[in-house]
């Protein structure tokens, strides 16, 4: 790359970017599907020099994506409010376990597959330690509950 840059000649750089989200056919053993939720299998691929770019928080023994940085490895598959059910088919219920599994997978395999759960008609916003859940009903957004 340096030689091309120093040569001052025009060049074409073709980048293949993996974005892979498919419906999860199988969930971890012992995990039941909740009606109304959509389950997807997201793939994050290690990109040299890039950050994972995802903050996670735990609430009611579930791990939620609190924030996703743009153009990060997590941005290819995760959105704010997604619930991380499993990492590499291992169920996670705490932030420490989830973080440990993600880092280990990136270290060993250069990719992570995560089972994600989201509710298509709700927006879950994570603010610091509190969670505000907005539910859309008949075109109106209602605050269900706020935890501090």
Automatic annotation (TrEMBL):
Residues 51-106 form the PDZ domain. It comes from Parascaris equorum (Equine roundworm). This is PDZ domain-containing protein.
């Amino acid at each position: 790359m340096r030689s091309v840059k120093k040569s001052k000649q025009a060049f074409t750089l073709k980048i293949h970017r993996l974005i892979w989200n498919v419906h999860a056919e199988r969930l971890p053993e012992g995990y039941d599907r909740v009606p109304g939720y959509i389950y997807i299998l997201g793939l994050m691929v290690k990109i040299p020099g890039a950050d994972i770019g995802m903050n996670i928080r735990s609430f009611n023994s579930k791990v939620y994506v609190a924030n996703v940085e743009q153009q990060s490895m997590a941005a290819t598959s995760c959105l704010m409010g997604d619930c991380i059910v499993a990492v590499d088919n291992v169920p996670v219920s705490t932030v420490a376990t989830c973080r440990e599994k993600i880092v280990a997978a990136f270290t060993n395999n250069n990719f992570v597959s995560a089972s994600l759960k989201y509710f298509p008609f709700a927006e879950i916003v994570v603010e610091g330690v509190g969670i505000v859940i907005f539910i859309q009903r008949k075109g109106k957004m209602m605050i269900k509950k706020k935890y501090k």
